[in-house]
Specification:
about 350 residues; alpha+beta; Beta-Lactamase; Helix Hairpins; Heat Shock Protein 90; 3 domains; 6-stranded antiparallel β-sheet; 5-stranded mixed β-sheet; 13 strands; binds adenosine-5'-diphosphate
């Protein structure tokens, strides 16, 4: 009895907000820090669905998984109607003697002051990177335009055309960059509306490949549809955006006349999922760079990347979209024989 009392008071002293739900997702417990942060008293929300308070952004089926702790992102809904995006750690609630019986879930929300510092730093870094990314093409546009104004009478016609082409290419790059940035901002602010419905995967792959075939040079597409009639639950435009980014990269970062394989397979192990893999025969990504590629503005410093157009936002956007549709994305392998990127989406 005394032990329970100590435990309850000790949990109330912990500065991190904590919430526990049972196996039916009903709220059974919150600590004092949780009340302070959200404004909800336990008595007001006890027995209600945990979704009233928080929503985990990546869909880890905690109760079905063997692993104990998951660090991930969640949205926390406060009583005053505001919401916060926070890092959380979840643990499946299990009885020592009955490891297979899942009793619920405990969620710990991480200290806010640390995240506030992180957010400030991320935002400073972001502004400085964006300024740099915008300044580089602008400097080039300004330089070539000035040369044309000052010395066009001394320049050969072919050089004038070349300079104008550079100005146009850089302006196109700026347009792409601004479009990607606006999209990233909508993603980061959860303003992107997704219409999730059943989609015939093959139809969308065919459509994207048909459009990309025009830019594929001598590269050939090989299809390996092991899950031929698969239906995924996704937003149609966003699914095509993801395929376009990944297959587009396979084209950009591989040699002419090589092959690009698109494979689909059904994965049942943990969840009902379809896995889509894209394999190219490019030069690959070094091990140290592999950790960077899904972050913002991660154009790698290699000759192939320098020759191709891009903003370094494609894989970041791709990952965010896939997570929002309850899937995952990963780099299966990458070496001097090529790379395989895979992503999963819930099957119907
Ligand atoms: P980008 O607009 O530069 O293509 P991405 O976010 O799509 O941006 O990719 C980030 C970086 O990862 C690229 O600049 C490139 O260096 C590397 N990369 C992406 N896909 C591949 C691939 N299939 N093979 C080799 N490198 C790749």
């Amino acid at each position: 009895m005394l032990e329970n009392l100590i435990l309850a008071q000790a949990i109330d002293l912990i500065p991190d907000p904590i919430i526990a739900i049972d196996d039916q997702s009903r709220i059974v417990f919150t600590n004092e820090a949780h009340t302070q942060l959200t404004g909800w008293k336990l008595a007001e929300i006890k027995g209600q669905n945990g979704r009233l308070i928080y929503e985990i952004l990546s869909d880890v089926n905690l109760l079905a998984d063997e692993k104990k702790n998951f660090k991930q992102e969640a949205i926390l809904y406060k009583k005053d109607g505001n919401k916060l995006t926070l890092n959380i750690t979840c643990t499946a609630l299990k009885h020592d003697g009955l490891p297979n019986v899942k009793l619920g879930q405990i969620v710990v929300f991480h200290p806010l002051f640390l995240q506030a510092q992180d957010i400030q730093k991320t935002s400073d870094d972001f502004v400085s990177t964006v300024s740099h990314e915008l300044r580089t093409p602008l400097t080039s546009i300004k330089g070539f335009a000035e040369t044309l104004i000052k010395s066009s009478d001394k320049l050969k016609e072919s050089d004038q055309k070349r300079f104008l082409q550079i100005i146009k290419d850089q302006a196109d790059h700026l347009t792409r960059l601004v479009e990607d940035l606006l999209f990233v901002s909508r993603l980061d602010n959860h303003k992107l509306h997704l219409t999730i419905r059943e989609l015939a995967l093959k139809k969308h792959i065919d459509r994207v490949c048909e459009v990309l075939a025009g830019q594929a040079g001598g590269r050939i597409f090989i299809y390996d549809f092991q899950a031929k009639l698969s239906t995924v639950m996704a937003d149609s435009d966003r699914l095509e955006q993801i395929l376009n980014n990944l297959i587009g990269n396979a084209i950009k970062y591989s040699p002419d006349n090589s092959s690009i394989t698109i494979k689909t397979q059904f994965e049942k192990k943990e969840k009902n999922q379809i896995i889509i893999s894209i394999t190219d025969q490019g030069a690959g990504i070094s091990e140290e760079d592999q950790e960077l590629i899904f972050t913002r503005f991660s154009r790698l410093d290699n000759p192939l990347t320098r020759q191709t157009k891009g903003t370094g936002l494609g894989l970041y956007i791709t990952k965010s979209l896939i997570l929002a549709m309850k899937g995952e994305v990963w780099l299966d392998k990458s070496d001097s024989n090529g790379s395989t990127f895979s992503f999963s989406l819930p099957a119907k």
